[in-house]
Structures are given as C-alpha cells and as structure tokens.
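[Amino acid chain]
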Amino acid sequence: MNARTDSARPRLIPEFLLVAGLFLVYKLGRLAAVGQHGEAYRNAHRVWDLERALRLPGEGAVQSALLHGDALTHLANAYYAAVHFPATAALLVWLYLRRPGHYRWARRALAVLTAAALVLHLVFPLAPPRLLAATGLVDTARVYGPSVYGSPSADTLSNQFAAMPSLHFGWALMLAIGLIVATRSRWRWLWLLHPLVTLLVIVETANHFWLDAVAAALLLGGTLAVVGPPRRTARDATGGARTAVPARRRPLSEAALSGRAPSEAAVSPVTVTEAGR
C-alpha cells in the first residue's frame, strides 16, 4: 500500500465525527418542523388529489396485494424499520475501506441530498398516507408490527410529518448508484433491486406516497449533477488491491539491440584499425 493511496482516504476519527454530526443536524432539523400538523394534513390531501389527477396507480393496490399474508406484511415492516440506516452505513464503510475516492463522492452526495430534503421538509410538511383517512390505507406497522413510530402527537424522537421527499427511497437509490459506479461486476445492476424493493415497502406500509419517491429521485438527480463524478484513486482503480510495481529494468545496451555478441561488440573499429598499423 503506497503513501499516495493512503492519503486518498480521510482520517477515520474526524470522518466518523463528521458523519455523526451531519446525522445529528438532520435529526434536530426534522424535529424543528414538529408542530405543523394542520399544514401537513392539508398538503397530504393536495398530494393525494394530485396523484389521482395524474392517474398514478393507487397506493392501496400495492397494499392490498401484500396484505394477503401477515408474514409478508411483517417482513415489509421489518425491512422499512431495519434496513434504511444500516444499509447506508454499510455503503459508506465499504467505500471508505475499498474505494476512498468514491467514498468522498458518496458522502458528499448523501449530505447534499439530506440537506435539500430537510429544507423541503421544513417548507412543505406532509403527513404520510397512513395518517390520512381519505386514503383508506392501513397503518401496517401499528397493526402487524414492528413499528418505529409512536403516536404522532407524542413522538419526540422523529418528525412523522416529513414524508416528502422519501429519504428511505433517496438513500436506497444512492446506495444502488454508488455501488454500480464503484464496482465492475456484470451483476452490479442488480443493486437496483434495493431501491425497487424499498419503493414497494414504503408504499405498502403507507409511509409514503408515490410522489414522495419521485421527489427524492429528482433531488438525487440534481444532487449528483452538482456534486459531479467521483474522483478515482489508485485504490479505486485496482479494487483495493496493492498495485504491483514492476522492477526497474536496466536499459538495453547497443549490443543487445544490434544482436551482436558482447565480445564482438566490445571491439570497436578504431581498435581494429590501430592494431593493423
């Protein structure tokens, strides 16, 4: 491992504190939006009506298909509760260890995406469809479990009225894009199954509208346009393996290039002439 490769990776402790600080700022920012319940419900009605005007498929169709089995619904709730943060953290850890240049790019993209989402949460509070009676949807986490939310009026740990954009979907899509860009396997496109499953889960559990995912995808697209492509390092190019440095070769002599034997080449024309005198 050469010094140039090591210098491409940020120092671990400052980087951990930076990521933890960004997460804390996001959580505090979400809590700052608490108290906009009335506006959040009004916006939810607007989003629901807009989806019907756009003739988007009803969220109820997805939920009905999965409510046939309690086990499947419980699995969807568990996926929503347990995969979101660990999967994103695993992406950052893997990129930090194996693709330092891509790590900086992914961390920056996630930070910009999350900051933009926080601004939208503050200016456009939105109740999730599970809290909107007009949707007729079931709060699957409350009925089947597990649930990550308490009562909306008493929940002091999270802001349940920050449905748009869906960071569940936005982060999942960034995870897939990050791994597709950072790897070279022909199977890497299968990572798109993660945001696809996440999309079905957030709709089936009635935690998000379709348009919440659309907003997240548009924000991510704008984020990646602003952040730009990742800067590849030597470690990125070699998949984290140590680059083999070939031994330094001695320059070929004139004799070797001409194909003459060393003894023959050692006798110069001048020496032969002088010997004949």
